[in-house]
Amino acid sequence: MQNFAHEMLREIYEQPEAIRRTLDLYLRGDGLKPDVAKLLAGWSIPEGEILIAASGSSRHSGLAAEILLEDLCGLAVDVEYASEYSCRGRHDREDARHPSVLVLSQSGETSDTLAALREARLRGQKTLAITNAAGSSMEREADVSMPLAAGVERAIPATKSFTCQLAALYVLALYEGARLGRMNPAALARHIAELRTLPDSIAAQLDGWREQMAGLARTYKSAATFLYLGRGIHYAISREGALKLKEASYVHAEGYPTGELMHGPNALVSDLVPLVVMATVDTSLDGSVMRYEKTLQLLRDMKEQGAKVIAIANAGDEEVGGLASDCVPVQPAAEYLLPIAEVIPLQLFAYFMALERGVDVDRPRNLSKAVVEQPAAS
After folding, report:
1. What is the rounded average pLDDT of the residues 335-364?
2. pTM value surpassing 0.90
3. Contacts of 75 by beta carbon, 8 Å cutoff, 6+ apart
């Protein structure tokens, strides 16, 4: 058994088993559980519209879910900041859209997200809550609940709860795809088989990522800020990687769609502003290959510009390796599963950057595990 100096590192290493436990809640061997399918059918609406409300890391998993549910299921999905949704005011119920509402929260008590759930219920909308806390307010108040099995998360920066959210959202997409007839039995079985291999794949890569990210943190510890870039579903991971770096190490970072770099942010790129680029690819999917080729062109431009680039790429990808300053390998996987793996080296980078800068990584300043409503001063 390994000894871990911090809860954050322990929880990063717990992710394979946490994901496996979460999958076991909803999958039976190589199939879906009929009782879960019946439960989830009560949340969906005929119009096929979904609104996702969440904050922080949970919103980033919502951004990934938007791509999953639209691409795999043909649903129309919007993602809102929970803090904004709950403050927009009620609309005329005869005129306003009434999508199903999905709320995501590690604690199930996040005040803004709980307010969004309650607002949706006041409007008569169907609601689904994905949380990691049994008996939480969101689990009790939503029409349908999909709990996670990540286990207690003690470090403030979310790690295993985030990857379990991604796994549960992938499972949700499989149930919706099957219900809507968007996946035939063979496709569904293939998706489940690929998902089932993920925990072992992550476990096999953890030690290598740990060693490499510790070295990269030493190399880049003097950087003033980082720009994280990703396309498609990987944009959500660029946002999450940037947030993890900010909250764990106090180093400024921003996440952008890769193609937006040249629309302003490139003016910031210098020796003190490195790039972290999601450059993985699923070679079996035309859209993924197209996004990858566009990312390669950006990497060529950045190399000519002299930028410092950390690339997250498929293991053995010599082309990306030749264009980036540093290349972090991720074992090839399906496009919609790659984000669950590729976020983990970014979690480790944030962890080691915090250590390099002397930060109490488990308890960053000004942050708490659940952002709840504070009582008014008397």
Report:
1. 96
2. yes
3. 48, 49, 50, 69, 176, 180
